[in-house]
Specification:
Blueprint lengths: L2 E7 L8 E7 L6 E10 L2 H7 L15 E9 L11 E4 L9 H5 L9 H4 L11 E3 L2 E3 L11 E5 L3 E4 L5 H4 L5 H12 L7 E5 L3 H12 L4 E5 L6 H7 L3 E3 L8 H8 L6 E4 L4 H9 L7 E4 L13 H5 L3 E4 L7 H13 L5 H4 E6 L3 H9 L5 E5 L1
Bound molecules: nicotinamide-adenine-dinucleotide, ligand AHE and zinc ion.
Zinc ion binds next to loops.
Length: about 375
Amino acid sequence: MSIKSRAAVAFAANQPLQIVEVDVEPPKAGEVLVRIVASGVCHTDAFTLSGDDPEGIFPSILGHEGGGIVEAIGEGVTSLAVGDHVIPLYTAECRECKFCKSGKTNLCQAVRATQGKGLMPDGTSRFSYNGQPIYHYMGCSTFSEYTVLPEISLAKIAKEAPLEKVCLLGCGVTTGIGAVLNTAKVEEGATVAIFGLGGIGLAAIIGAKMVKASRIIAIDINPAKFEIARQLGATDCVNPKDFAKPIQEVIVEMTDGGVDYSFECVGNVNLMRAALECCHKGWGESTIIGVAGAGQEISTRPFQLVTGRVWRGSAFGGVKGRTELPGYVEKAQKGEIPLDTFITHTMPLEEINRAFDLMHEGKSIRTVIHF
Ligand code: NAD
Ligand code: AHE
Ligand code: ZN
């Protein structure tokens, strides 16, 4: 029998979310019903709501940075039990597909095709409203009191960890740290430039500090972000608006030829170019984390790559969620990942549109929604 769930539904692009009571069907074979306790709001939720996401489907329930408790399990589910604490994963980990077995990527493809269509692996949705289907989002839909996910899309975590904080490890904080540790593999003593100081960029600063980077240059057009950046370990804060020349030139001059590693944490294709071009000739590596809108493309002179710079990208920080996320939770529990620093606002689901406003106004790092 289906249950009722309060949810913030995105009925159409660019419209405020509407809080309604949706119907949630029980989990089918290999699926799990989760009661969401808290969810962060990531810029990607706003990106999809804006209509710029080629995979954006409406009506849908957004949200992919959640923490919850297993409420029921479907047939054949063995790795989770009712009462387990979990973090939903938009990058599943089946441990069986070519991608999982490659040892080269975290991009499990077991459920990716249906996930991109807003559906569960059997090609249907578990959500409906007034008898009409509502689509899932990134396989998570954490802006709902109850949601259904494949078993392979849930990381089981310690029950002692506060879900209203470790939910941030479901996307932003893990993505930023993981991009530095797993994707770029920044080494001790390296110089690093981080473009964009939202949840992702600030987490990348934590990663750079963890590996003992010698210089961490934090770049943002909103100087209100610099205080937290410094607190987390940034050695220099730069506002591109303070300079008449391109930001890549500024960074190259500051660093005797460019940084060893850079990270684009905004989703702006011009900034992606700047992030590549501020890297040192011969070895500098730039990692794209930001998500750019439909139809946008990156460009640079190929000579930038011919002369040794490397361009890469990172999804969920290269982290394999079921295997590695419990370790991130442990680190947060030990105080090695200061989640509190990210949580600038908390609010009930009913006020979720305010969380989007705060993000667009540059006033929040992360808002955590409580159910
Ligand atoms: P956010 O809105 O919290 O932060 C973005 C920051 O970029 C803000 O501080 C803003 O002032 C700054 N900014 C905007 N334009 C700028 C410019 N021209 N130069 C310098 N700084 C600028 O966003 P977030 O939640 O931190 O997400 C950042 C990006 O990362 C988004 O594109 C999001 O979709 C993407 N993302 C990617 C992944 C992934 O796995 N690849 C995961 C999470 C988020
Ligand atoms: N759907 C978009 C791309 C969105 C995107 O790049 N998503 C990131 C995660 S952002 C989390 O806040 C990602 O991990 N992508 C890999 C994947 O498999 O989705 C588009 O352009 O179609
Ligand atoms: Zn996200």
